[in-house]
């Protein structure tokens, strides 16, 4: 599923395992995990309920800098983010922004095609590994 540059893959495992797998895949790919934010825990601390919803903020300068050199405004969308979340039917999803869509948003799609293609391939591989049924 892709909506306005948002790519979502249904996970074959639950939110905790998907989050653990995503973290491991990011690290194995040499990406830096800058932050891991548990929105459900934040909601609970405010006395509210929220299905599992966890945000990962990650990246590396080698991938992001060429995009920011082309358009510094893309820094608002970098580092990259991925969201592990559970819908109201109990299905787990992994969502992330398509790097090519981000480049388009900032008007640098043509000049950053190769960079965004590489990023998209890497993110797709990471997402598939994190959401697969294999252990």
TrEMBL record:
Cited InterPro entries: DUF302 (IPR005180), TT1751-like_sf (IPR035923)
Limits of the DUF302 domain: 37-99
Superkingdom of the organism of origin: Bacteria
Pfam families referenced in this protein's UniProt entry, alphabetically: DUF302
Stored CDD domains: DUF302
Signal peptide annotation: none
PANTHER family: INNER MEMBRANE OR EXPORTED, SLR5037 PROTEIN
Name this polypeptide is given: Uncharacterized protein (DUF302 family)
Provenance organism: Bradyrhizobium macuxiense
